[in-house]
Amino acid sequence: MHQPSSLASLSSVVRLTYLSLLGLLLLLLAGPLLALDARYTDADGDLVADAPTDSEQWLDPSTLVFAYTPVEDPSVYAEVWDEFLTHMEAVTGKRVQFFPVQSNAAQIEAMRAGRLHISGFNTGSNPLAVNCAGFVPFAMMASEDGSFGYEMELITYPGSGIDEVADIKGGKLAFTSPTSNSGFKAPSAILKSDFDLVAERDFEPVFSGKHDNSILGVANQDYPAAAVANSVLRRMMAREVIEPEQVVSLYKSQTFPTTGYGVVYNLKPELADKVKDAFFSFPWEGSKLQEEFKQSGEAQFIPITFKEHWEVIRKIDAANGVSYDCK
What we know:
D-Maltodextrin-Binding Protein, domain 2, three-stranded antiparallel beta sheet, 11 strands, signal, PhnD
């Protein structure tokens, strides 16, 4: 089937072989599981970097830079986050700038280099951001009753010839990127353990770059199947980017934590506290955030810890042989 020009352009960039992508991932992540990079310390054992004891090492920028995980079109989310960033400016007394990142790798590198101060990292890249970039997550979106999370779904399109997960064998399956939990790591572990399906051996893996690309690829019948986060799928349906009848769900996983929000470890502690206050005092009612994220059930920010809420993700990474050293 003819591939849309946007997907064709993307494919020319991201259609590396599975082994090349996996090799790059393992090169980035080679080292002891859960070991913080050598530049960080964790004296309290909470698995995230401690703030420097030397105030000379604190960051106190005149402009705070915020990034949202590169799940969908950055231009859409710049507007969605505009009211929130205005609120953060009022709370912190700082100018706040939205930084539209194009990839998880660019987002992590920006924070590691000190150019990104506040961010939402997606589920799968959270551990890498914590261990390699000094990310300290403290908040997550949740519903009004405090419940949270999303599921990984394997999807296909009607008439694809794939009626159950086993039918993926011999064909192609679209992943998003090697750092994504629901777009790569979780489905890889689940397909192997529950269905004895292994990429390259049993099916050809392709990489779309983002969840919306995978979803559009299936809806437009360019990919026979894909592994995606169903929170993104629901939002795209709500915005009528795709129609519900364009996709069929083959499998839904257990619930995973969603995007984790936090700051870089060496942000001036007083300023970091104000950033936290901005998250937990933001008035959701009538906001653009509410309008966008109500489609996937979120209605507030709740406090979280990396040690507790990302335990299941660290277990999935361990099952996949993933570690987090950045050298």
